[in-house]
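Researcher: Next sequence.
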Amino acid sequence: MANDNDLSLSDMHASSKVKTKTTTGATAKPAAAPQSRSERTDRSFDAIADHFEKKVYGGLKGEIRLAVLRRDIFEYSAQMRQHLGRPLRVLDVGAGLAQIAIDLAAQGHTVVINDISANMLAKAQAHAAQIDTPLDITWHICPYQELPAKLSTEKLEIKNNEKFDLILCHALLEWLAEPAGVMDFFDQYLMPKGALSLCFYNPASFDYRNLIMGNFNLLDNSDYKADNVKSLTPNHPVAKEEVETWLAAHRYHVIRSSGLRVFHDYAPLKRGGHTDPEAVIRMELRYSQHEPYKWLGRYLHILATRQV
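Model: Next structure:
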């Protein structure tokens, strides 16, 4: 998910390569770290979009993240396309920079990209405009809760042949005021036997990393909150077990799970293979799907199908 200035996206539509439509909606302002769920608001990164891009995707951490997601998603989406005999309809909710969704559009799929932040989607559109192939992308700037109204204005009635074959939801749960509520949205818009790609921050990794680093003061302080004015560490992450409970309750079957950055962030002293980025990515990919290592990932990726 990506926060917010009054940046117009119309200038980003000049390229004829991208078949694109953009709609806007109300955007949320960055919130300080609230203390109770009733006080929380959905987080937008509009005001720190440049910082987000640099911190999350400006180095090896971002390359590892994308390498794992691309492997997991592209392998399965290719199987889905072959089985259905057509390109997929893909929705990316809280897309942020939308790299994976744009890649899928470049593969010929029809893609809808959504985020609460105009600035984040402006960056995503700039990236899409650089791709030398026609892209079928529709852009919606709004909280995901407003997407039903946006989609209905496109006369996309909620019928089986107009739902989505694949929904991406990456790094959104931990920034929502009511994260469990997004499961009802998935139920509404995902095709029967469609696939859900759910990537979320792993709170166990926060504890483990601070144990390794000796930051016991943070672990002893139950009131500790990251400074969410600029921090990208969520104060209200959702545990794997809770997500699994939601998936089971909504009749999703997990077909693949991976850890993102299962060792890279835990190595304060970079030596040997750590000095070779290609080797790091190779080993991250190797161990990302093996227990117990995958459950140490800074983020977890779950690919699940809807059983109806």
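Model: Residues 25 and 142 are 4 Å apart (CA to CA). The beta strands are 18-24, 89-93, 110-115, 135-141, 164-170, 190-201, 252-260, 299-306.
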